[in-house]
Amino acid sequence: MQRKTLLAGITSLVIALGASVAYASDDKTIHLLIEGLKVYEDSAKVLGEELKKEGYTLDVQSFTNGTQATLAVEQGEADAGYHRHQASLDAFNKQYGTHLVAAFKEFTDPAGLFSKKHKSLQDLPDGATIAVHVDPSNYWRPFLILQDAGLIKLKDGADPYTVTEKDIVENPKHFKFVALDYALLVPALDDVDASFLYSSQAIEVGLEFRRDALGLESEKYQSPDIMYVKSGTENSSKIQALKNAYYTEAVKNSLKDSFGGKEVLIPAW
Predict the structure, then answer these.
(1) Which tens digit of pLDDT belongs to each residue from 12-30?
(2) Is residue 78 within 8 Å of 72, Cβ to Cβ?
(3) Which part of the chain is CATH 3.40.190.10?
(4) 2-109+223-267: what CATH class?
(5) 222 exposed, middle or buried (CB, 10 Å; 0-12, 13-18, 19+)?
(6) CATH architecture of 111-221
(7) Are 107 and 223 contacting, i.e. CB atoms less than 8 angstroms apart?
(8) Please, which residues have CB within 8 angstroms of residue 5's CB and are 6 or more apart in sequence?
(9) Residue 7: per-residue pLDDT
(10) Which residues in the chain show pLDDT less than 50?
């Protein structure tokens, strides 16, 4: 009953688009759940073309509810999910008691602090308001950027992956933080002094991470996007075929083409 409920929720959008829904146990069909964003849709299309060369069919289904989709992979209703980074998957496993693992890394979407009002982190005024991602697996990131820039200090021994404003022991410029949903971080640029954004978000408003970020996340804290699967399936022939097809120049080029030929994402290969 649970499996039927999960699948019904995920495929509602697919049915509206006129696509067929079939999760059969066909060893040559790989069922992939993707987020309905251009970069995922574009690369999944190319991925399917590459898999055809290996004798596989890629059945791609879009979803609007990430939690439901991830649970569907856990329940075996799909072979893999294409929309989470490692920190997000770790947090999900902890919250839901699931057994999902990274089959392979896809790309890194560099994160940073961006602004329409200021040219550098040092220019942020006293009492500046900074938008942060409300999601716990991303919430901590801007605080580390600010600490690296010497603008705040976090308490000694704080776990960098769980820090919040409560861990700030020195905040000489009295920064204020507002937690927003992912979709609101870009629009917030018009109202706040700075906003945490992924490079793929910044490009939406003409900002580029190498050129325009006030401060970038340290590489050691970057969390690559991953193709996630249920534990125990990561070495199956299907998933290995999926990895081989993904790690091609065709897919790499599609990641650039989605952003008008710009190198917004950093491929893992």
Answers:
(1) 333 222 333 344 445 899 9
(2) yes
(3) 2-109+223-267, 111-221
(4) alpha beta
(5) middle
(6) 3-Layer(aba) Sandwich (3.40)
(7) no
(8) none
(9) 52
(10) 1-5, 11-25
